Amino acid sequence: MEQITAALLAWYDRCARVLPWRGFHNAYRTWVSEAMLQQTRVETVLSYYPRFLDRFPDLPSLAAAPEEDVLKAWEGLGYYSRARNLWKGAKQVMEEYGGVLPRDPEQLKKIHGIGPYSAGAIASIAYDVPVPAVDGNVIRVLSRIYGIRTDALETGTRRRIEDLAAALVPAERPGDHNQAVMDLGATVCVPGTPDCARCPLSAFCDAFRAGDAADLPVLPKAKPQKVIPYAVLLIRSGGRVLMRCRTEKLLQGLWCFPMLEGEFAAEDLPAAASRKLRLSLSTLRDAGTGRHVFTHQIWQMHIYETDAEASASAPAGYEFIPLDQLGNLTLPAAMNAALAVLTRPS
Ligand code: SF4
């Protein structure tokens, strides 16, 4: 194991990615970077991270901010529950830990939004605590090195991978070690066909010897996402447009245009929309389509536009928003296609 760790650190010293959240010990900054990186590509995070830290440079500034400001700074990054959890967690750290993230991983796991992976990443990277941070990258790399060919999500296999990951973490430079595994998984030991010719660990790798790296880790087949059809309605009234701040768990607190679930014949939609919104909508013009892929579902959207009377009042739960104030609201990327229709030059 020491040989693997030594080879990995030597490779990291030569090939580590230069990233703005590296090179210093700051638990808050590590936390923000790890929250942003969950389910999101490094290239995407690179543009959000500096802006977020300009706006919220430290934990007290994040904890003191209104929730809408935090969501606005996260706008377009997706998986907004991460932003909400970060904000709630910051408040909790202010109240329960005097504004300082604890170094003990067990304490870290008690903070809102910090799971075992983030706790390991924060403790090892910011505080040099020798604990692993097991995410999909680590599962893939270790499954290949140790030739683990059973379902990686099954409890026994998962525990075995966690034990191996813990045994590999050195007492010195544990944060660098964990980041080296992350880098190896992101740039060399990638999903699908890995680049074994460039790998510092090929001499230790069971899957490389066996030639089945592309088949590892063994994962259960993902369920196909559910496709949900929606009619998205752009209802203008004077210089305003009808919107709703979502209360559902998915995209909670973000603003969307009115949506009707289902597929509608063109002649049926005005009546259905009028009933749902308690507005009199006689015509709805076809304005194109949009599609947004979430982890578990896909929104297949048909966009329609219409004009209501300038004096129309918004139905309960909705608001007419002046068009020049739209930029102050946080809209999810799922609304991009409809927004493009709304803002296109006439
Ligand atoms: Fe991954 Fe190939 Fe390196 Fe094994 S040798 S750890 S499969 S890149």
Query: What is the gyration radius calculated from CA atoms?
Result: 24 Å
Tell me what portion of residues adopts beta-strand conformation: 5-15%
Share of helix among residues?
40-55%
Major sheet attributes: 7 strands, mixed
Label the structural class: alpha+beta
Descriptive terms for the model:
single chain; 346 residues; 7-stranded mixed β-sheet; 14 helices; elongated; binds iron/sulfur cluster
Describe the structure.
Helices cover 42% and strands 14% of the residues. It is of the alpha+beta class and 346 residues long. It has 14 helices and seven strands. A hairpin with a 2-residue loop joins strand 1 (226-237) and strand 2 (240-245). It has helices spanning 2-15, 27-37, 42-55, 59-64, 67-74, 81-96, 105-108, 116-127, 136-145, 155-168, 174-187, 206-210, 269-277, 336-343, and strands at 226-237, 240-245, 255-256, 259-261, 285-293, 297-307, 319-322. Bound molecules: iron/sulfur cluster. Iron/sulfur cluster binds next to helix 9 and helix 12.
